[in-house]
Amino acid sequence: MLFRGEDCLVPAQAADQLQSIAVSADSAAASEAHFQNFKEVSPALVSWPAEAIPLSLFSAEPDGYSYSVFTYQGVVYGAVLLKHDDDDFTKAAGLEPFAGIPSRHLALSFSLDLGRFVLLARAHAQWAVVSRFCGACGAPLVDANGNEDVQEPLDDHAYGTRFCPRCKRLFFPRMSPVVIVLVRKGEKILLEHNVRFPGNRHSLVAGFVEIGETLEEAAAREIREEAGIEVKNLRYVRSQPWPFPDSLMLGFVADWAGGEARPDGKEIDHLGWYTAENLPELPMKGSIARWIIDTFMAGGFSNF
User: Fold this and answer.
1) Hey, which of 49-58, 84-93, 199-208 has the most confident mean pLDDT?
2) Burial of 26 (0-12, 13-18, 19+ CB in 10 A)
3) Domain boundary assignment for the chain
4) 27 has a pLDDT exceeding 80
5) How many CA atoms lie within 13 A of 300 on its CB side?
6) What secondary structure, in 3-state letters, does 72-101 show?
């Protein structure tokens, strides 16, 4: 699977089919039952045949390209991430015509099967970019899976693991844990606008877990830093891989415990308490943030 910047590059024919599928699905029904109308979309539709990409394009040179191999439903795939302005790879590989589709849209707007595949492929593509050289000695890394020089036993599915032939270190695909929390106050929930969000989009409090923190400590700290309030009754609800670039989203629900909510003025420029009747623009359907919000608005989490 081929990515360039924030887009996924797919065969032009596949892009036409995806457009046709989206148009033919009833928009009202799609909004009520996300993914239900797109069961026919499969990973094969957006993938390039392996033989279409010459292996000679990949090298350990500083300006070379790299890829990561993974399996999905028993099929072996490769993932490549190009810089946003890179046109050389597609020309050298003869991958034309193609179309760029935003990776988030591709992952969240069609079939659940396709969404899981795109997120997995995007994670491997990102890992391929940042795992080319050993962080200890600087030597080029190689695939560890199936490598006879690797002494440590690896699971058969340990795709993406890198090995340094010089210092013998192993490097496993990186994930950065992020807590994302719905804070409720009666029938209201706290939503905030990050300075990086487009338009009036608001979402839940979220932030990276720091070294030495528990998830619970990170959640309380992020809420305190971004909104200036305290919470109680923190409960875990769900997770979602989010490879932009390498996050694992860990969802929680908590109750307001004290303080007056106010934006920090740095990352957050606006926030407020919202009910189902006055919601601002929300995150995309399919994201964990949207799932938590929709679940609460539908009466979920009442037993917490």
Assistant:
1) 199-208
2) exposed
3) 2-130, 132-174, 176-297
4) no
5) 14
6) ECCEEEEEEEECCCCCHHHHHHCCCCEEEE
Which secondary-structure segment (H or E) carries 237?
Answer: strand 230-242
Other CB atoms closer than 10 Å to residue 196's CB: what's the count?
7
Separation between Cα atoms, residue 283 and residue 104, nearest integer Å: 11
Whole-angstrom Cα distance, residue 248 to residue 242? 6
What is the Cα–Cα distance from 87 to 83, expressed in whole angstroms?
9
CATH number of 176-297: 3.90.79.10
- Determine if the pTM surpasses 0.85: yes
Supply 268's token pair.
Answer: 């957050």
Helix ranges (H only) for the chain are 12-24, 27-32, 88-93, 103-108, 112-130, 215-227, 288-297
Give the Cα separation of 231 and 243 in Å (integer): 28
